[in-house]
TrEMBL record:
Single Gene Ontology MF annotation: galactinol-sucrose galactosyltransferase activity
InterPro entries associated with the record: Aldolase_TIM (IPR013785), GH (IPR017853), Glycosyl_hydrolases_36 (IPR008811)
TM stretches of this protein: none
EC numbers: 2.4.1.82
Residue segments, region Disordered: 64-83
UniProt record similarity statement: Belongs to the glycosyl hydrolases 36 family.
Catalytic function, reaction form: alpha-D-galactosyl-(1->3)-1D-myo-inositol + sucrose = raffinose + myo-inositol
Protein name in UniProt: galactinol--sucrose galactosyltransferase
UniProt keywords, alphabetically: Carbohydrate metabolism
Highest taxon, organism lineage: Eukaryota
């Protein structure tokens, strides 16, 4: 008879498929009856096994046999009490002696484990047989009788130690799906942290703790200190050999950047994500790395404390645990660093963030958020066009010049420069004048004098005009999280109701250890006018209700991370950030029709893991048109940062200039980003040859499904400075994948760590490889009958190749050059009809134009039906030449080349927005 058990309990105890028998002498079992290990849930006790003395599954006294790991809600009942007085027992582990492998207890016990001399230190196994599992079979609660055998302390100790040793040796058993699941579990044993069946950390101090996180492989690292403090730095050991890592760390207070390495000493301060890869023995991994094990370490929020990772000169990995308020102290970090492992880094990230969001409850995964509609429309931002000199006339000129050129913005951001502010520091020394720009304070909620005059009566008048005249659908206004850079002016009549006070930021040592920022230097010197957290919702609601009343659709909220430096007296950095963040989100929901919010300068984990509703966040530092050495860095920043940010937000890869020496480079990247596409051109200064590869005549864009991220084989390379690696970015559309290959080498260097010698840009030609398998989850869109063949179309070279999923295509690019590849699974309808839609091949992300693909067939013909946006040049792979092609029922001329490229034009309908064309491609049956 087999009784069922909870899978989670089995995984927690590591007992799959093992039968343990007692023995009075070597090799001769006392009993061949089934040994049943009962497991019960109970909060705040350790997992425990219960062994029936007489081997009977339905009667007899059960006593505790062994314990295994951890504390928390997913643990089990202390079974030293009568079961009849406890809640009904529902599940058990059953290992019949006749069906499971025999493991003699005395052969399992090491001499060092028992102190008993003469015990053989060997382990024998028979081949595993399948354990039949049934779930939820009820078990009667037995009567309570004390057995003489169970009173035998020596025998009880023997069994407990036997179970411990047996669990340690289970990895030698041939793997089964359940065994593999157990191997993936995170375990802290004798100072070693094991993840995915491999050692990740060695020599962990005894104060380090590990708590299971509810699913196999996931856990929380913590640590205990001798004394309470508002800031602790705990060592968790050294990185074991065989691992390489990629870090996302804050190189300055506002922004993250990637770094790669191998030893723990090089892990930067303020690391907020550490992704590690182990390939095991040399040469054991496939070329594409599919057999690698990936470990994820995410320092998270734990109560009022926030964690970050860093290396030490002693090659130790540490986590910093801080509240940001000297009055908020603790001795223990319980859930400080989340750990998980898997064989797919992107799946690992997604599953980990989803699990964390459920455990913590302070943020949500992007799939659980409302996505703002403006992301599907081309936009224009006023910042680089005017900076703080933005004005109504300039805004209208910019909108008109873009519209007349065929790239009409439907989304507008009126950036910094529209608010009523004051500079209190006009009389300071000239050497400090530059810093005072960031110390200006907000004095009123309404627009300043530039937006009130003869040409523009008020902000509402301007917004009404640009929507009616220029077809703008969404207008966003910029403001800082605290009102303005320097907060609000406490003496202002309009601000007094919010109980503001002047506070002076105090940065974490982690921030100061990396790159200092001029804005923070200014705020530390001149202070910030911070609104009482209990009044912050009132402030946001007043401001947003006014903006909504004059036609504004949403806001871009900047300078968010400054809050982490102002936690003193407010319960700490996490508490004050969360209060502001949730008040902001509630005000957005109250005053705007959609979730129309862009978060900016918000790359601390305080904000990231407090984002319940916020759905869009800037992915990197600003696009800087006058800094030639920062252009390639920008693409690397946004792609790598999107690995983490893309699971919680739609990453905003920032504006760029269409008329710029790097316009193609930036434009191609934005097409793959999965986020918004917008420029900050000066009025009349545009390159429409670039814009028309991104924007359709109705102002819509072809947005990909997910956040664009580096391909798996790029995750642990340095795409900016190693002199040999291309940066490849992948994404998915409805019916195809897309990969962008970028040569970021030679044009710049990482801004941190700071180099003593000025960098001199050079040109480097890099050759690499691309494969359809670089597109993760391509199988999702290919369908069950997919043979693995793909059509690969290169945008710039206009070349078409037919490749199997794991075949490689050579790519060679010079510095600052890029190529975009559309990868479409080939569907076989018959021997003669093999077809793969490409989309609009005159657009960077051609596959984003495809809405639907289907087919019909009869005895005489097969017809492929495609719904495609337009206008533009439609392309597809077709193994044979079709008989005819129709667009909305009208037969059109088409071309078909030897490599299989089928192409024809989709016209532009000027009568309405949003061209959608019904395409029919007919093949006669031979």
């Amino acid at each position: 008879m087999f009784l069922g058990f909870r899978a989670s309990a089995a995984q927690a105890l590591g007992l799959s498929g093992l039968n343990i028998t007692t023995s009075s002498s070597y090799g001769r079992p006392l009993s061949t009856k089934p040994i049943v290990f009962y497991v019960h849930r109970h909060r705040y006790t350790a997992p425990q096994l219960v062994w029936p003395v007489n081997g009977d599954a339905c009667s007899g006294h059960r006593r505790r046999l062994a314990t295994a790991g951890g504390r928390g809600p997913e643990t089990f009942r202390d079974c030293s009490r009568p079961l009849s007085s406890s809640p009904p027992l529902q599940h058990a582990f059953v290992f019949p002696a006749s069906h499971a492998p025999q493991v003699n207890i005395l052969e399992l016990i090491h001499t060092r484990g028992t102190g008993t001399a003469g015990v053989p230190r060997r382990l024998s196994y028979m081949a595993l047989t399948r354990l039949v599992i049934m779930s939820s079979l009820p078990l009667p609660s037995p009567s309570y009788k004390m057995s003489r055998c169970c009173r035998d302390r020596g025998r009880r100790l023997l069994l407990r130690r036997a179970m411990s040793v047996a669990s340690d040796h289970l990895s030698t058993v041939a793997p089964t799906p359940r065994r593999q699941q157990q191997q993936m579990m995170a375990r802290l044993e004798h100072g070693s942290l094991l993840v995915g069946g491999r050692e990740l950390l060695a020599r962990a101090p005894p104060n380090v703790t590990l708590r299971p996180a509810g699913v196999p492989g996931a856990a929380f690292l913590g640590a205990r200190a001798a004394e309470p403090s508002s800031r602790h730095v705990f060592s968790v050991g050294t990185l074991a050999s065989g691992w390489r890592w990629m870090s996302l760390f804050r190189f300055k207070i506002w922004w993250m950047a990637p770094a790669t390495g191998a030893g723990a000493a090089a892990v930067p301060a303020e690391t907020q994500m550490l992704l590690l890869e182990s390939r095991g023995e040399a040469g054991s991994a496939a070329a594409e790395g599919r057999s690698a094990v990936y470990a994820l370490m995410l320092p998270v929020l734990d109560g009022d404390f926030r964690a970050s990772l860093q290396g030490s000169p002693q090659n130790e990995l540490q986590f910093c645990f801080e509240s940001g308020d000297p009055e908020v102290q603790t001795m223990e970090a319980v859930d400080a660093v989340f750990i998980n492992s898997g064989d797919n880094p992107f799946k690992l990230m997604k599953e980990s963030i989803k699990l964390l969001s459920k455990i913590k409850g302070t943020f949500r995964h992007i799939e659980d958020k409302e996505i703002p509609a403006n992301l599907d429309w081309f936009g224009w931002c006023t910042w680089d066009a005017f900076y703080k000199a933005v004005n109504p006339t300039g805004i209208e000129e910019g909108l008109q010049s873009l519209r007349e050129g065929g790239a009409p913005p439907r989304f507008l951001i009126i950036d910094d420069g529209w608010q009523e502010t004051v500079d209190e520091f006009k009389e300071v020394d000239e050497t400090l004048r530059e810093q005072t720009v960031f110390a200006q304070r907000l004095t009123d909620l309404k627009e300043n004098h530039k937006f009130r005059g003869e040409t523009c009566k008020n902000l509402g008048d301007l917004i009404k005009k640009i929507k009616e005249k220029h077809g703008v659908k969404f207008v966003y206004m910029w403001h800082a999280l605290l009102g303005y850079w320097g907060g609000v002016l406490a003496t202002s009549d309009a601000m007094k109701k919010y109980s503001p006070k002047l506070a002076y930021p105090v940065q974490s040592p982690g921030n100061v250890a990396n790159l200092r920022d001029i804005a923070m230097d200014s705020l530390e010197k001149f202070g910030v006018g911070i609104i009482d957290p209990d009044k912050i919702y009132e402030f946001y609601n007043d401001q947003h209700s006014y903006l909504s009343s004059v036609g504004v659709d949403g806001v871009k909220v900047d300078v968010q991370n400054v809050l982490e430096t102002l936690g003193h007296g407010f319960g700490g950095r996490v508490a004050v950030t969360r209060k502001y963040q949730h008040a902001l989100e509630d005000s957005i929901a109250q005053n705007f029709k959609r979730n129309n919010l862009i978060c900016c300068m918000s790359h601390n984990s305080d904000s990231i893991f407090s984002a319940l509703k916020s759905a869009v966040a800037r992915a990197s530092e600003d696009f800087m048109p006058r800094e030639p050495t920062l252009q390639t860095l920008h693409i690397a920043y946004v792609a790598f940062n999107s690995i983490l940010l893309g699971e919680i937000f739609i990453p905003d890869w920032d504006m760029f200039h269409s008329k710029h020496e790097t316009a193609e480079f930036h434009g191609a990247a934005r097409a793959l980003s999965g986020g918004g596409v917008y420029v900050s051109d000066k009025p009349g200064v545009h390159d429409f040859s670039v814009l028309k590869k991104l924007v359709l005549p109705d102002g819509s864009i072809l947005r990909a499904r997910y956040a664009g991220r580096p391909t798996r084989d790029c995750l642990f390379n340095d795409p900016v400075m190693d002199g040999k690696s291309l940066l490849k970015i992948w994404n998915l559309n409805n019916f195809s994948g897309v990969i962008g290959a970028f040569n970021c080498q030679g044009a710049g260097q990482w801004v941190w760590p700071v180099k003593d010698i000025a960098y001199v840009p050079t040109s480097i030609n890099i050759t690499g490889h691309l494969s359809p398998s670089d597109v993760e989850s391509l199988d999702e869109i290919a369908g069950d009958s997919w043979s693995g063949e793909t059509a690969v179309y290169a945008f710039n070279s206009c070349s078409l190749s037919r490749l199997q999923k794991h075949q490689n295509l050579e790519v060679s690019l010079s510095t600052m050059a890029c190529e975009i590849y559309t990868i479409s699974p080939i569907k076989v309808f018959s021997e003669a009809v093999q077809f793969a839609p490409l989309g609009l091949i005159n657009m960077f992300n051609s596959g984003g134009a495809l809405d639907d693909v289907s087919s019909t067939a009869d005895s005489s013909a097969t017809t492929i039906h495609v719904r495609c946006r337009g206008p533009g040049r439609f392309g597809a792979y077709s193994a044979t030449r079709p008989e005819l092609c129709r667009v909305d029922g009208q037969q059109v001329e088409f071309s078909h080349t030897e490599d299989g490229l089928l192409a024809f034009d989709l016209p532009h309908r000027s009568s309405h927005d949003g061209d959608r064309w019904h395409i029919e491609i007919l093949y006669r049956t031979l």
